[in-house]
Structures are given as structure tokens and as C-alpha cells.
Write a structure and sequence with these properties.
Elements: E1 6-16, E2 24-33, E3 42-47, E4 51-61, H1 68-75, E5 81-91, E6 94-103, H2 106-114, E7 118-123, H3 126-139, H4 157-169
Antiparallel strand pairs: 1-2, 1-4, 3-4, 5-6, 5-7
Protein name: DUF3305 domain-containing protein
Length: about 170
């Protein structure tokens, strides 16, 4: 099951930094919810050496029941947030940080980062956190904890056999 889409827009900012290998740093600075973007969904808002800003609109964010644990982990954190995955691309001859995905799932963001993607965060507003909280209450069911048997360190036939097999595997 999924919820109705929430359309968002992201503003990315490039600032100059004192670093000989990387002269600029990119980060998302603003996320707008449900504001229709007039004209092109991608446009440069400001182009200065010290501060360049680009607007990217048209991202649909939906909540999915199979991501309920990721939403729970997000609202359970100190600062619930939006996760914005972005890549550097060329637009009109300039390198620009282009958002590719926006999510509220901690697990989805972790999977993206595990895959080598850049993911930054912006704090989520109270109404989004409350909407997420209601969704989690309705759809998240934590898996029951399973009891694990502690291994026996007292010896015995099972431990002797395991040690013997371990020795054979290592050529002893």
C-alpha cells in the first residue's frame, strides 16, 4: 500500500570553500511542499561565485507500508528529516548538484548511501512528522525479538566435533 503523493521542490546551494582539491561544497538548503513551480522545474535562482542556488521541482514523495520501519527510525531520531539523494551533473555548461530522490525513510536513505550515493538531510516540519507518526502507528509492527541460545563453552561432544571440523578446514 502507498499513500497519495506529496510533491516537493528542493533548493541546492553551492558555496565556495577554502580547499585546493574541492573549491565548492553543495548541500540542500530548502525543501518546499506542494508549491507549484511556475515554468521550468529546474532553474538557477542565483549565480554568484560565493553563493549559487538551483531550484529542482516535481519530486513525488509517497509513504509505503513496506518502508514503515524506516519511517519509524526517522521519527524516533533526535531530528526527523527529509533525505535528499543527489548527484553532480552538467547543466548549461556548469557542474550542478541535482537531486534525484527525496524520501522520509531512514532505511531507504541507508540503502542509497550503501550504494555509494550522496544523501543529505533537511529537518522535516512538524506537520510532516505528525503525518509520518500516524502512518507508523497504523502500519509498523516490530518483529518480535528472538531468544538466542548462548553457545556452550563447557566442552562436550558437540564442541569437540566443531573444533575437529574447524581443524580439518584449516589443514591441521
Amino acid at each position: 500500500m502507498e499513500t497519495e503523493a506529496l510533491t516537493v521542490a528542493v533548493v541546492m546551494q553551492r558555496t565556495a570553500i577554502a580547499n585546493r582539491w574541492q573549491p565548492y561544497a553543495w548541500k540542500p538548503i530548502e525543501l518546499s511542499i506542494g508549491i507549484p513551480i511556475q515554468g521550468e522545474p529546474v532553474r538557477c535562482l542565483r549565480s554568484e561565485e560565493a553563493d549559487t542556488r538551483w531550484l529542482f521541482g516535481g519530486f513525488d514523495v509517497r509513504l509505503y507500508t513496506d518502508e514503515a520501519e524506516g519511517y519509524f527510525l526517522n521519527i524516533d531520531s533526535a531530528v526527523p528529516c527529509w533525505f535528499i539523494m543527489w548527484r553532480i551533473e552538467e547543466i548549461d555548461g556548469a557542474e550542478v548538484a541535482v537531486p534525484k530522490q527525496v524520501t522520509l525513510s531512514y532505511n531507504e536513505a541507508a540503502r542509497l548511501m550503501d550504494g555509494g550515493e550522496r544523501v543529505d538531510t533537511l529537518p522535516a516540519p512538524a506537520e510532516i512528522i505528525e503525518h509520518l507518526r500516524r502512518f507508523v502507528e497504523q502500519h509498523y509492527r516490530p518483529e518480535p525479538k528472538k531468544k538466542r541460545r548462548k553457545p556452550s563453552f563447557e566442552g562436550g561432544a558437540g564442541v569437540a566435533q566443531m573444533a575437529s571440523e574447524e581443524g580439518k578446514a584449516h589443514g591441521s
